[in-house]
Specification:
The protein has 3 helices and 7 strands, in the order βααββββαββ. The protein has a 5-stranded mixed sheet with strand order 5-4-3-7-6. α1 packs antiparallel against α2. The chain is elongated, with a radius of gyration of 21 Å.
Amino acid sequence: MDRIPISKEGFEKIKQELDDLKAQRPAIIQAIKEAREEGDLSENAGYDAARERQGMLEARITYINSRMPLFDVLDLNTLDGERAIFGATVEVEDMETEETRRFTLLGPDDADHKNGSISVMSPMGRALLGKEEGDEAIVDAPRGKIEYEILSVEFLGSEGLNIK
């Protein structure tokens, strides 16, 4: 598998999530132990719930652990240029509706559309990569092809980042 771009801030957030998940293990193990002590496991809802919670926790830990070695951690404060690349904040205008939108291009693990960032691997992100101010980008969307004009490309560094 290829390297996965991620901001330093996004990487720290993922590491913190992994630490938090690992810290939950003892409590879940204790809940399973207590549920077992209640007797018949075939009709023990507490046991089933604890085992399900353990399964989801372990699946997320495994998923994060499998991605950690693939991350290519990038410092947003060192990036600049004229073209839309990872870390760039791009303002675009829909050429049909004249609606403007602004995105920061990040990796799939730290992008958050609600906070104004999109993945460089998303259809919109892929269409914007390598473009500069004045270029056009065509995005394949459910409603058909959407043409955007690139209004600006800037690099705000980690100050412009809104990772929750």
